[in-house]
Amino acid sequence: MSTNSYPLLQTVNSPADLRRFTRPQLKTLAAELRSYVLDSVSRTGGHLSSNLGTVELTVALHAVFNTPEDRLVWDVGHQTYPHKILTGRRDRMPSLRQLGGLSGFPLRSESEYDTFGTAHSSTSISAALGMALAAKRKGEKRRAVAIIGDGAMTAGMAFEALNNAGVADANLLVILNDNDMSISPPVGALNRYLAQLMSGQFYAKARDMGKSVLKQVPPLLELAKRLEQSAKGMVVPATLFENFGFNYIGPIDGHDLDSLIPTLENIKGLEGPQFLHVVTKKGQGYKLAEADPVTYHGPGKFDPEVGIVKPATPPKTTFTQVFGRWLCDMAEHDPRLVGITPAMREGSGMVEFEQRFPQRYYDVGIAEQHAVTFAAGMACEGVKPVVAIYSTFLQRGYDQLIHDVALQNLPVVFALDRAGLVGADGATHAGAYDIPFVRCIPNMSIACPADERECRQLLSTAFAQNHPVAVRYPRGSGAGVEPLASLEGLPFGKGEIRRESGQVASAGPRIAILAFGTLLYPALEAAQALDATVVNMRWAKPLDVELLLEVAARHDALVTLEEGAIMGGAGSAVLEALQAARVQRPVLQLGLPDQFIEHGDPARLLALQGLDAAGIEQSVRARFLAG
């Protein structure tokens, strides 16, 4: 990607460079930056709408604040591509979200300008407050700025931080980037409040009156926008944020550098907690993304001139789609079913469910803790909740999972999407820990379907239980086994033998591979070369101990296989069961190691962990067949 089309942008190697620019030059820089973001993402894939919406805000922040000495904390981090480009990483954008390349989120180890690693929402105010108070404690004069979206403001953690910050006497600036969007359209009372605040007739009349007065005084005409911003502060009564102890300023146009820069310069000189309300538009400057910010939230590669085009041949059915269809079918069958999502309608495959069953669909906003306890409350009243949530996001509701659901043994189904490695989103989004953290909780069960058909069947099995059950499945498609139309489930807590070894005892040790989840298929491929038995275990909890002991009795060595953390995972469950039964067999545990795995192509990442067919075969030979 040539930088010749971006003559001003190519001169910016750090924010210090753009601080020498005039205001007209900064406007030109913003236009080039927006074009560069669009060009880059169209070539690599990544988050687009959110980044197009924060171009001017990013330019203004780096122009006014002395970064990295002043700390910028970007909530979630979907919107930090302009920030990365302006902080010395422009030429690395072609490697975005690829193995060994730039992270799609802020990453402390990547740049000193990434002051705090993010990817989950609603953490920025807490982190920036910590930085501000640490600077105060050390006697250092620096600013801490949290940039948070209106969607992320729906999470309880953001309000816990606001509550603390308002009385902490810290030089903290919170910028609310209000684009009326998170990933799915925003929901809840806070969103309605912000919309009313900005569209209120009182403010609109006051604004128009102010403009008419200013027009009578030509020397003040150039100050109109600044005075308009000030007038907003006067005419808007005590806001929610002022009641938290913040000095509220706004709302102002987040795409107008003539408003942003003077406002930020004024705020920079103020003491105490400040709150700036900025209004932006997702997809700004690219009409297709403006019109459909959800589709352009995280696209793959595409031609910017044409936009995203549906493939000529339909892609393979994904696990997410299997869940979405099952949810609709089960809702037709059982009127007790309700669907709950923490702001991930599209990502969790619930669009059709919302359309067909709007009265049984609940989007609670970015509030995972609330989602889990909300489901528990419904289950107490005889409703059958299905919580569609990414594995990595259920981590945020872990206390609620234990105390509010499992302790009361409530029949809630957790559909855990994105289990295992997720590829380009990296360690922050990997569903590596759900087997260990679910199976240690009393009353909880966790199913590991091997393919699309089993996913539908095990969801039905989970729904039929009278206790909490999680069903984990990966992002994307699997082996391509077409689901059955029926809602019939599989036996609870039971696995099956998929391949029986034909090996005789004299030929060497008989090996059985116990597969949990979609790694069944590479296990079957490796077993052909090894002549090993393959068991589709299906359940990490309850473990099919009867089948396990029967297989152990007929084999000399066992291999456990899971796309999840080895420590405390399904392989550990096998070892515990063997120990309890006083059965001694050598066991090789294959899974994800005790380390965070970076972003990259999922198949490549699995291969690097030895979890493809070749890697499984190699590990088994090295352990049991060497020499």
Automatic annotation (TrEMBL):
Q: Which reaction does it catalyse?
A: D-glyceraldehyde 3-phosphate + pyruvate + H(+) = 1-deoxy-D-xylulose 5-phosphate + CO2
User: Which domain of life does this protein belong to?
Assistant: Bacteria
Known pathway: Metabolic intermediate biosynthesis; 1-deoxy-D-xylulose 5-phosphate biosynthesis; 1-deoxy-D-xylulose 5-phosphate from D-glyceraldehyde 3-phosphate and pyruvate: step 1/1
Q: Which residues bind thiamine diphosphate?
A: 78, 119-121, 151-152, 179, 286, 368
Give the cofactor note: Binds 1 Mg(2+) ion per subunit.
Record key words, sorted: Isoprene biosynthesis, Magnesium, Metal-binding, Thiamine biosynthesis, Thiamine pyrophosphate, Transferase
Keyword Ligase present in the record's keywords: the answer is no
Could you tell me which residue ranges the Transketolase-like pyrimidine-binding domain spans? 317-481
The record, for SUPFAM superfamilies, names:
Thiamin diphosphate-binding fold (THDP-binding) (SSF52518), TK C-terminal domain-like (SSF52922)
CDD domains on file: TPP_DXS, TPP_PYR_DXS_TK_like
Q: State the EC number(s).
A: 2.2.1.7
Gene3D superfamilies recorded: 3.40.50.920, 3.40.50.970
Q: Which InterPro entries match?
A: Dxylulose-5-P_synthase (IPR005477), THDP-binding (IPR029061), Transketo_C/PFOR_II (IPR009014), Transketolase-like_Pyr-bd (IPR005475), Transketolase_BS (IPR020826), Transketolase_C (IPR033248), Transketolase_CS (IPR049557)
**Entry keyword annotation includes Nucleotide-binding:** no
GO CC, sorted alphabetically, is: cytosol
Q: Which residues bind Mg(2+)?
A: 150, 179
Tell me a GO biological process for this protein: thiamine biosynthetic process
The record's section on Pfam families has: DXP_synthase_N (PF13292), Transket_pyr (PF02779), Transketolase_C (PF02780)
Quote the function comment for this protein: Catalyzes the acyloin condensation reaction between C atoms 2 and 3 of pyruvate and glyceraldehyde 3-phosphate to yield 1-deoxy-D-xylulose-5-phosphate (DXP).
Q: Which family does it belong to?
A: Belongs to the transketolase family. DXPS subfamily.
Kindly give the NCBIfam families that the UniProt entry links to this protein: dxs, PRK05444.2-2
Protein name (record): 1-deoxy-D-xylulose-5-phosphate synthase
Question: Which species?
Answer: Comamonas antarctica
